[in-house]
């Protein structure tokens, strides 16, 4: 008998808590969590390391074939490998996020990662998060959620996260970055950040993490997932 798989797509703007929430929901459901932003960040890091300016579409598009991105899972956690090197920690800076946002606007970069993303969801149940999962990567996903929160709240959360990691940061700068990143991700021509027609909007501004996780599982159940 063919194994039943169920795919949950979570899209939304930067800092809405997608990865924390998707990771927790995946754990509760026994699904694999796939973080697609990490793949774009790894391409961003590749460009920075090779002195390729993120605003130079031609150069980025030419170079991207040299960035072999692979995914492995260690203790249920996704690791991102760039040409065989585990860069999972190195891609978590604001610089990598902003570079990822710039290079992710290019069709050649998106094409480079699309096959890998679809492959990861081909044979196991996944929760995949990003910007275009419900609209482009997995348009047939069984459940789709568009997770958002106000820019102020998102900036505040990211600020706390960075502080806890001992990183230097400034709240106003983070909020500005978030607003600019939203604009770039939403206004690009290739696979822009957009709520899919059949996605359920969840605004987590005034919700706890547990409440958002439950809301997402409720959406999946309402779309036919059976949970024990
Ligand atoms: O989710 P994140 O902050 O790690 O993503 C970094 C950037 O990558 C984001 O600003 C836009 C891009 N991205 C994308 O274009 N499509 C995705 N599915 C995921 C991320």
Provide the structure class.
alpha/beta
Radius of gyration: 17 Å
CATH architecture of the largest domain: 3-Layer(aba) Sandwich
Order of helices and strands: EHEHHEEEHHEHEHHEH
Main β-sheet, in a few words?
A: 5 strands, parallel
Bound molecules: 2'-deoxycytidine-5'-monophosphate
Report the CATH topology name of the largest domain: Rossmann fold
The name of the CATH superfamily of the largest domain reads P-loop containing nucleotide triphosphate hydrolases
Shape: globular
**First and last CA, distance:** 21 Å
* Percentage of residues in DSSP E strands: 15-25%
How does this model look, in words?
Strand 3 and strand 4 (77-82) form a beta hairpin. The strands form two sheets. This protein has a five-stranded parallel sheet with strand order 2-6-1-7-8. The mean pLDDT is 94. It is 47% helix and 17% strand. The protein is globular. The chain starts with 6 loop residues before the first strand and ends in a 6-residue tail after the last helix. The chain folds into two domains: 7-31 and 126-220, 3-Layer(aba) Sandwich (Rossmann fold), CATH 3.40.50; 35-124, P-loop containing nucleotide triphosphate hydrolases (Rossmann fold, 3-Layer(aba) Sandwich), CATH 3.40.50.300. By secondary structure, the protein is of the alpha/beta class. The protein binds 2'-deoxycytidine-5'-monophosphate (DC). 2'-deoxycytidine-5'-monophosphate (DC) is lined by residues 14, 36-37, 40-41, 97, 100-101, 104, 130-133, 181, 185.
């Amino acid at each position: 008998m063919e194994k039943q798989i169920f795919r949950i797509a979570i899209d939304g703007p930067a800092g809405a808590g997608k990865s924390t929430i998707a990771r927790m929901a995946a754990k509760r459901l026994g699904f694999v969590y796939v973080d697609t932003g990490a793949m774009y960040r790894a391409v961003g890091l590749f460009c920075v390391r090779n002195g390729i300016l993120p605003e130079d579409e031609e150069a980025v598009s030419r170079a991207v074939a040299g960035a072999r991105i692979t995914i492995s899972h260690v203790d249920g956690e996704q690791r991102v490998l760039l040409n065989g090197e585990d860069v999972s920690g190195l891609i978590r800076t604001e610089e990598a996020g902003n570079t990822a946002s710039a290079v992710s606007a290019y069709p050649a970069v998106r094409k480079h990662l699309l096959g890998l993303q679809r492959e990861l969801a081909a044979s196991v149940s996944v929760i995949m998060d990003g910007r275009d999962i419900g609209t482009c990567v997995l348009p047939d996903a069984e459940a789709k959620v568009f997770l958002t929160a106000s820019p102020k709240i998102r900036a505040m959360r990211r600020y706390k996260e960075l502080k806890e990691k001992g990183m230097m940061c400034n709240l106003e700068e983070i909020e500005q970055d978030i607003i600019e990143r939203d604009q770039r991700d939403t206004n690009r021509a290739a696979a822009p950040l957009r709520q899919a027609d059949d996605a359920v909007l969840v605004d987590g501004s005034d919700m706890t993490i547990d409440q958002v996780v439950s809301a997402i599982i409720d959406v999946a159940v309402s779309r036919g997932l059976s949970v024990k």
